[in-house]
Amino acid sequence: MNDMMSNGMEGSAGTRPWSLAAQSADLTEPALRMLTMEELEDRVASGLHSGFKLKAGFICDMDNTRICDLILPLRWARRQDGSGYAVEVAFATRHRSVARMVLENVALNGSRAIARLADHGFTMVGQSSSLKRLLQGWRNVPDALRTDRSGWLRTSCEEVYMRADGTCLGACPTEPGPALLANPRPPQRAGTLAGWQEAVARPALGNDLMIFAICAALAAPLMRPAGMQTGTFHLHGKGPIGKSHLALIAASVDHAPTLRLSWTIDTERLDRLLEQTCDGLLDLDCLSENPSGRLLERLAGLGDEAVGPHDWSWHGIRLSTGERPLSNLLAQHRKIVAAAVTSRVIDIAAGTGSYGAFQTLHGHADADGFLAALRQGAEAHHGHLLPAFIGQILAGQKALGGVLPERIAAMASKICARADCPVTAVEGPLREALRRLALVAVAGEMAITFGLLPWPRGSATEALGAIAARWLPGQDGTVKPGNVVRRLAAFIAENRDVFSWLDAGSEADRADPERSWQDDTFIYLTATQANLIPGFRALLPELVKQGVVAPGDERNSWKWRMGRQFKTRPRYYRIRKDAVM
Predict the structure, then answer these.
(1) Which of 314, 272, 95 is nearest to 184 (CA)?
(2) How many helices (H) and strands (E) in the chain?
(3) What crossing angle do the helices spanning 293-300 and 326-333 adopt, rounded to 10°?
(4) Is the distance from CB of 51 to CB of 60 less than 8 angstroms?
(5) 103, 244, 433, 542: which has the highest count of C-beta atoms within 10 A?
(6) What number of other Cβ atoms are within 10 A of residue 325's Cβ?
(7) Dist. CA 340–CA 320, nearest whole Å
(8) Which bin fits 135, alpha (ψ -120 to 50), beta or left (φ > 0)?
(9) What letter would DSSP give residue 416?
(10) Which residues fall within 8 angstroms of residue 468, CB to CB, at 6 or more apart?
(11) Rounded to an integer, what distance in angstroms lies between the CA atom of residue 473 and that of residue 535?
(12) Are the C-beta atoms of residues 551 and 522 closer than 8 Å to each other?
């Protein structure tokens, strides 16, 4: 990514530095498209070398003895150090479809390659030595660079992004492709980008954590050009408040949401998963109350240690969920020092909305209906947004290096202002954590400008600002409960006339969701008003403990539900007058 960082673009007033040339339609096509059966047969027939011939759709020796079904070497690849020779093949399955696979050269010496092919429907009736001779003797097979992980890759001619399914973004859509992923996973794409935008992205408006989850997935490929190694966002909260659905939404940006994995994954499988998520999103759901210390160590050490036998470092974003803050568990297991926890691990309370992790249900009768609709939408439409976003990055990568650091710094200032905390007061490891939050917001605003997210400009900034306003005060102590109570009292005093008396309100007044109320004992604040008080939502648990806020008896909610004189029974933050007046 050196070109991304060394080539700048001066932005002037009125310009749109993110409006880069739109080339994503070409960049998201696989470097090697799937052949048809007719094409496969024609290419095998024209490419067979001496000692083999094609007869009745089967590859045979010169004595007409059948060896195997149709198979074609597409390209040979090796690592930059010259090791790891492998061949990508296209082959016919029993159902007469064409499949692709990467075979290690050393595996051709025995039965391992044949076993893998057979598992995917390939028919082999001859000796394994015949397959080895067939493939290794094929003439004019193109060469490629081999990589064992996904993510950014410098080839001899260009910077490309290797997706986990082997699609090489940024490559010319002609064969051979410049790079080959050794162990790709099956493609994970369904539906359309427009379908995902309507079913998943649009309902995120008004729900800060949904916007955050989507933007966090988009920020992952920007970590390396931003000069950052890793970042962990851990969504925590007691009970079923929608945490797993937030992880599902993030996953749908890049792949099938069913690919999300539990924290119970073993470390060997984790290494394989890291290969498939470098410069991307690693999403892990449901952190147990007593996770493996070794697993925590591996995750906490990402970026500090080499991964795999070929010594590469993992870059990207980890998004995880659990009932307890991750930093507490890491400290409990003494896996990393406090500074590293502060800079890389950002715990975000997920139960601060009116409906658990969500603030609005967009017309659904209850949270269950809303979550079911999101789940169905993500399962039907996924895997489109991230490749389209990376396509836009590649189209303007030389300009990106010049504007990205400035945008992150400016966004960090906005986030701090939203949290009523001057950016100059955030230092050391906490500043690094703030830069990661800012990058998430920047990624979201980029996608909005690219036309990939159906949100008004500023939506990602506002959502990340609200999240930071809940997160920052608990980190540096700049916003303490006493300060919030004083701000709350000042707000109520300044807006005394807007609080209608409950016993004097008309039916029309009670139908207005933005009207706030009071009685002899309480002030009833709307969510909009609460957002105007810096630090209020971040310190809600402490304000409840001190008796300033009096919630109702609904689980997973800090709000009070109004009585039956209100037809829709809206929810408000109920403030004790004697605590603030």
Answers:
(1) 272
(2) 22, 21
(3) 110
(4) no
(5) 433
(6) 19
(7) 17
(8) alpha
(9) H
(10) 415, 416, 418, 419, 434, 437
(11) 7
(12) no
Tell me which residue of 418, 403, 443 sits closest to 211, measured CA to CA: 443
- Contact between residue 413 and residue 421 where contact means Cβ atoms under 8 Å apart: no
Cis preceding linkage at 176, omega within 30: yes
Q: How far apart are CA 327 and CA 7, in angstroms?
A: 37
Nearest to 480 by CA among 421, 434, 431, 535: 535
Structure tokens at 471: 């997160």
Give the model confidence (pLDDT) of 42-101 as tens digits: 999 999 998 999 999 999 999 999 999 999 999 999 998 899 999 999 999 999 999 999
**Structure tokens that stand for 450 in this block:** 């690219």
Q: Rounded distance, CA 291 to CA 568, Å?
A: 43
**Do residues 359 and 242 lie in contact, with contact meaning Cβ atoms separated by under 8 Å?**
no
What are the start-end ranges of the E strands in 487-580? Answer: 499-501, 516-518, 522-525, 560-561, 571-576
Helix H or strand E encompassing 227: none
Q: Which of 297, 200, 296, 313 is nearest to 257 (CA)?
A: 200
Helix (H, G, I), strand (E, B) or coil at 411: helix
- Are 236 and 323 contacting, i.e. CB atoms less than 8 angstroms apart? yes
Residue 467 makes CB contacts below 8 A (sequence gap 6+) with 208, 209, 212, 348, 437
Among 22, 289, 318, 279, which residue's Cα sits nearest to residue 152?
Answer: 279
Side by side, the strands of the sheet bearing 168-169 are 151-154, 159-162, 168-169
Outline where DSSP puts E strands in 192-274. Answer: 230-236, 261-262
Cβ-based neighbour number of residue 51 at 10 Å: 11
CA angle at residue 412 from 202 to 528, to 5 degrees? 50
Task: Enter the pTM of the model.
Answer: 0.74
Per the structure block, which two tokens stand in for 237? 């909260």
Residue pair 526/508 in contact (Cβ under 8 Å)? The answer is: no
